[in-house]
Amino acid sequence: MTGDAGDMLSWDESVFRDESVFEIDHVPETFRHRESQLENLKYALRPAVRGSRPLNTMVRGPPGTGKTTAVQKLFGELGARTEVRTVRVNCQVDSTRYAVFSRLFEGIFEYEPPSSGISFKKLFGQITDRLVEEDEVLVVALDDVNYLFYENEASDTLYSLLRAHEAHSGAKIGVIVVSSDLGLDVIDDLDTRVQSVFRPEEVYFPVYDATEIYDILAERAKRGFHEGVIGDAELERVADLTAESGDLRVGIDLLRRAGLNAEMRASKTISEADVEEAYDKSKHVHLSRSLRGLSDSERDLVRVLAEHDGERAGAVYDAFNDATGLGYTRYSEIINKLDQLGVIDAEYADVEGRGRSRELSLAYDAEAVLDRLE
Ligand SMILES: Nc1ncnc2c1ncn2[C@@H]1O[C@H](COP(=O)(O)OP(=O)(O)OP(=O)(O)O)[C@@H](O)[C@H]1O
C-alpha cells in the first residue's frame, strides 16, 4: 500500500537499478525477434569479411522496429575484424553528401576533416586512398536515409559511394540504406543513373506483435528496475499502449517516465496511474524526435503552423514570411519536408473562386507541438 512507510523510498534509494537502459541510444544486450533480418544482413555483409565488396542492402520498416539496433549489433561484430571498417551515418544530422563524407572521413581517420573546408573531391580521394592503402573494406550505413531525400542529396551521395571503385580503383565500399519512411519509394525516387547501379538486397522490419513487445519490454524492465518495482498488470498496460503505434521507443520511454513518476511519489512500486500519466508524454516520442532534427527556419514554420492551425495556407505563409523573411520557394520546400516527415498533412483541395490550393493541418495536437518547440 502506498503511504505505508515500508513502501516508501528513502533519499538514497531509487526504483532504477540501471536507468541508462532506458536511454534513447542504448544498445540492448539481448536483441530478440529479429533473427531472420540479422541473417539476411549477415548474408549481404559476408563478402566484406573475405575482403570483397559486400552486397548493398536496403533496410525498411516503420519507426522503432529495431533497424538501427540491428545495424549497430552487426557493426559491433564486424568492427572486431580489423580488415572491415564500419561507419554508421545518422542522416538526420548529416543530411548532405558533403556532411556524409565528412563523417566517413572521421570514422576512418579518427579525427575530423580540416574545418577550413576541403573540396568534396579531395575529401573523397583521401577516404578512398586510405582504404586502398590499408586494404580495408568500408561498410557504410546511411541511417534514416529518408532525410537525404528530403534535402535532395540522396542520388549524389549514393552515386559517389556506389561508383567509388570505378573512380578509385581498388576501393571497396558497400552501402546499407535504412529508411523508416514507408511513403518513400527509395529506388523510384533516385535518379536513373543511380538506379542502374543500385540493386540492393531488401530486408524488411515489420512492427513487433503484442507478445514480442511485451517480451522485449519485460526484459528491459528487468535490467532497468529493481525487482518488484513493476508488476505484471502494469507491464501489460505499457505493452498494450506501445502496441498502439508499434514504436518500441514509446514503451521504453514509458517505462522510464512511469519509474520517475513512482519516485516522485516516493513509492517503491509503479502504479497503473504512473503509467497512464506518463503516456501523455511518451506517446509523442516520435514527434519529439522529428522536431529535434529540424533547422531553425523549419522549426519556425512548424511554430507558425501550430499557432495558425486550421487557417488557410495564405495566412500561414504571411506569418512565416514575417517571422523569417524567407520567400515562397523555401516555404514550399519546408512544407514538403514536414509533410513527408508526417508532422503535417498537406492536401490539395479545390477552394471556391481560388482554384486549387493546399490545405495544411498539423498531424498532432498544436499544444503538444508547441511544448516540444520550447
Ligand atoms: N528486438 C529488440 N530487443 C530489444 N530492444 C529493441 C529491439 N528492437 C528495438 N529495440 C529498442 O527499441 C528502440 C528503437 O529501436 P531502433 O532505434 O533500432 O529502431 P529503428 O527501427 O531504427 O527506428 P527509426 O526508424 O525510428 O530510426 C531502441 O531503444 C532499441 O533498443
CATH architecture of the largest domain: 3-Layer(aba) Sandwich
Spatial shape: globular
CATH class of the largest domain: Alpha Beta
**Strands side by side in the biggest sheet:** 2-3-4-1-5
SSE pattern, N- to C-terminal? HEHEHHEHHHEHEHHHHHHHHEEH
Coarse structural class? alpha/beta
Q: Describe the sheet with the most strands.
A: 5 strands, parallel
Protein name: ORC1-type DNA replication protein
GO molecular function: ATP binding; ATP hydrolysis activity
Organism: Halorubrum hochstenium ATCC 700873
Binding site for ATP: 65-69, 208, 220
Describe the structure.
With 374 residues, the chain is of the alpha/beta class. The protein folds into three domains: 35-204, P-loop containing nucleotide triphosphate hydrolases (Rossmann fold, 3-Layer(aba) Sandwich); 208-283, Helicase, Ruva Protein, domain 3; 293-373, Arc Repressor Mutant, subunit A. It contains 17 helices and seven strands. It has helices spanning 35-49, 67-79, 97-109, 120-134, 146-150, 154-162, 164-167, 192-195, 210-224, 232-243, 248-264, 272-282, 285-292, 296-307, 313-324, 328-341, 366-373, and strands at 57-60, 84-90, 137-143, 172-179, 201-204, 344-351, 355-362. The chain has a five-stranded parallel sheet, with helices on both faces. It has a two-stranded antiparallel ribbon with strand order 6-7. Strand 6 (344-351) and strand 7 form a beta hairpin. Helix 9 (210-224) crosses helix 10 (232-243). The radius of gyration is 23 Å and the shape is globular. The chain starts with 34 loop residues before the first helix and ends with a helix. The mean pLDDT is 91. The chain binds adenosine-5'-triphosphate (ATP). Adenosine-5'-triphosphate binds at residues 26, 28, 31-34, 61, 63-69, 144, 180, 205, 216, 248-249, 252. Adenosine-5'-triphosphate (ATP) binds at residues 26, 28, 31-34, 61, 63-69, 144, 180, 205, 216, 248-249, 252.
